[in-house]
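PROTEIN DESIGN WORKSHEET
SECTION A - STRUCTURE
LENGTH: 408
TOKENS:
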């Protein structure tokens, strides 16, 4: 099977081959729900090519000796069984991702127009994090031989938890893509990294991590280049209960638990935060952990998503009432949300409860209203009537995906 697939796919392929050869009539297997995604799913696609899936449970909890995982139960044959059931209900078909929707999003194509817009954040690969007191001591230090401030390399950090919960604060030392000679000119941060990080990196089996011990393990030069010159960009956590998006100053360093979009316009933010994009991300992405939280994937989730206009070709707010409507709606959503998250008159104990996760758990009327107005504006940009069911959204997006892919 394809590289990156789990070992369990071997047994699916072995069973499929036995059925195809006529040695076995049907088979049933239990595995983790990861079979539905990525390289693992290729084995189910192959089963559907030579036969078909006729029964299954896409996502069930499984507890055994303290272990808590999510599993899929799958039955398949050579295509003889006419009755199909998924999650205990009769269905017309079972797709390779163990859904029964008519829009088979497993056939969605990657769109070149979306390349170079979203990236994973930095993977530090060592203890580059520092607390506020240490950071302030470094920032306040003067007299570097290069005449530059340490704030160049001592920057606020952002992780997924900071987007969905209260910001934890803290800083990270980030020498970006500097040579060791240039990094050493920031004396206090460099000495800290030399003393704290270098011993750890010296033990690394990764030759690059050991050689370039003062740099983050994956410092994402493409991301840095993409957001250069921008004051803000868009961030979403890789794994979260709700698919939320926030603005991040480009002076902040996002970690690898975040996906970063190199756009600074409200229109783009608004489309990403619409129900239309959320439905696509839930259908095309996967899920992670016993909590079964949705997981965002830059290349698959956004890479296949057709925006109302191909990125870079959309009109400006001044030239398009549809673009302006999206921008106005999302600006209002963010304003209301920020007011709720950070009121000036709440005690600290109550303020700690003001998180995006708790807000979207409660889903108050004002939030529903703000999102409805955003969804209406985004649907209008696609020239679609609103509201639409999730099935209708996926059908329309898949058609648009295939049209865009065929234009290349």
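SECTION B - SEQUENCE
RESIDUE ASSIGNMENT:
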């Amino acid at each position: 099977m394809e590289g990156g697939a789990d070992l369990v796919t071997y047994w699916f392929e072995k069973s499929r081959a036995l059925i195809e050869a006529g040695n076995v009539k049907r088979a049933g297997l239990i595995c983790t729900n990861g079979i539905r995604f990525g390289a693992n799913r290729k084995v189910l696609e192959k089963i559907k090519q030579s036969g078909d899936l006729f029964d299954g449970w896409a996502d069930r909890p499984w507890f055994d000796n303290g272990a808590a995982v999510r599993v899929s139960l799958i039955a398949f044959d050579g295509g003889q069984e006419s009755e199909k059931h998924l999650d205990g209900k009769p269905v017309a078909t079972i797709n390779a991702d163990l859904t029964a929707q008519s829009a088979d999003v497993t056939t969605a194509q990657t769109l070149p127009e979306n390349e170079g817009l979203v990236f994973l954040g930095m993977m530090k690969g060592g203890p580059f994090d520092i607390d506020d007191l240490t950071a302030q001591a470094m920032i306040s230090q003067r007299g570097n031989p290069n005449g530059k401030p340490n704030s160049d390399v001592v920057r606020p950090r952002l992780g997924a938890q900071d987007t969905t919960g209260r910001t934890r604060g803290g800083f990270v030392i980030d020498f970006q893509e500097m040579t060791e000679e240039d990094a050493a000119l920031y004396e206090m941060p460099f000495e800290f990294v030399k003393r704290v990080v270098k011993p750890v990196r010296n033990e690394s089996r990764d030759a690059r991590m050991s050689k370039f011990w003062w740099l983050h393990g994956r410092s994402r030069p493409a991301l840095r280049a993409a957001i250069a010159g921008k004051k803000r960009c868009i961030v979403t956590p890789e794994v979260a209960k709700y698919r939320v998006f926030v603005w991040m100053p480009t002076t902040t360093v996002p970690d690898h638990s975040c996906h970063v979009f190199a756009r600074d316009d409200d229109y783009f933010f608004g489309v990403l935060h619409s129900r239309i994009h959320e439905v696509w991300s839930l259908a095309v992405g996967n899920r992670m952990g016993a909590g079964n939280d949705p997981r965002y994937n830059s290349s698959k989730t956004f890479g296949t998503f057709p925006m109302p206009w191909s990125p870079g070709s959309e009109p400006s707010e001044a030239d398009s009432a549809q673009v302006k409507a999206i921008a106005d709606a999302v600006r209002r959503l963010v304003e209301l949300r920020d007011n709720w998250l950070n009121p000036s008159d709440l005690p600290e104990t109550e303020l700690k409860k003001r998180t995006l996760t708790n807000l979207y758990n409660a889903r108050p009327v004002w939030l529903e209203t703000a999102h409805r107005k955003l969804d209406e504006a985004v649907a209008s940009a696609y020239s679609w009537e609103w509201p639409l069911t999730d099935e209708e959204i996926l059908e329309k997006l898949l058609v648009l995906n295939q049209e865009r892919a065929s234009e290349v």
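SECTION C - NOTES
DSSP finds 17 helices and 15 strands in the chain.
The longest strand covers residues 52-64.
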